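Recap from last week: sequence in, structure out.
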Amino acid sequence: MRPNPPESPFQRRRTSAATAFSAHGLDSLLVTALSNIRYLTNFTGSNGALLLFREHAVLYTDPRYELQATEEADCPVKVARGPLWIAVRKDLNRKHLKRTGFEKGRITYEAYEALRGLDAGDPGLVPVGGIVEHLRMVKSEDEVGAIRRSVATASKAFHEAVKRIRPETTEKELAAELEYRMRRSGAEKPAFETIVASGRRTAFPHANPASGTIGRNRLVLIDMGASQNGYASDMTRMLFSGRPGAKLRRLYNSVLEAQLAAIAAVREGVTAGQVDRKARQVLGSYGLRDAFVHSTGHGLGLEIHEPPRIGRRDKTRLQAGMVITIEPGVYLEGFGGIRIEDTVLVTKTGCEVLTPTPKELILF
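Predicted structure tokens:
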């Protein structure tokens, strides 16, 4: 008698998810977030739903993805020949389930309304949140490996692009150069739209690249990341086109000190809020507490922003295998902003900074 083949990583994840939703008193879970579907099945298409039961799962998609889903997903695939949510609804009715969870905040109103139009035998839709996201917080060795490759790809592209920057370069040209070089270095795609801002616009934490030239004696902020096998990296570095003055040096060094203090606090067992407070304490000592307008960081993986949030109110305890960003920043209207960001792996004894790019202010 042949032994059963070992479970795939995706099967093990589905088993863990089934254990988790069963603890909520659910008979099944409807997974609608594409990142969660990819995590549980390996399906990478842009339209799908996963109906997860305690012993098995079914992936729903449309005819455009029939071949792709069959090749990628390691669970049965059902191709909806009409509206996807009608197919899901009909199957839920046939199974006569009492409680089916759905991912609140991860489903469109249109889909929810279609599911609510259940016929006799309504299984009872129960809003739940964070079941799969909680499983995703601690990464496997393979996941960490993918993030390492993403970090290396982005760092290589950054170093190559920075060599070509000139005062007459536009923000849009620099963003395009960074994204081109990430793809050339092996990235599937940028992990998010690359942020390039210069001068006073660096005070916009999420500025869109503009068409104007950088110019001389200007601060430049670059926030970028690559995606490898679906897993993201994230880094922010600062440049200056000229010789920085004393005020800029002081601000830069204060942000760097805050970032290093937060990184030093990262280890298994501490809360995300404790890490955030370390950065705020440093910036507060320089009178910059009010200029720090966002959290110190966030989880990173199949999405660029994942739990845990490295914020002052987050009580999540860090665990070895979590991958987070540490990115304190200060933003001063009329002057500009400074942010320094690394991708960081939580370990049993502390942490490992995965981003190899030096943190010094780069002059050109």
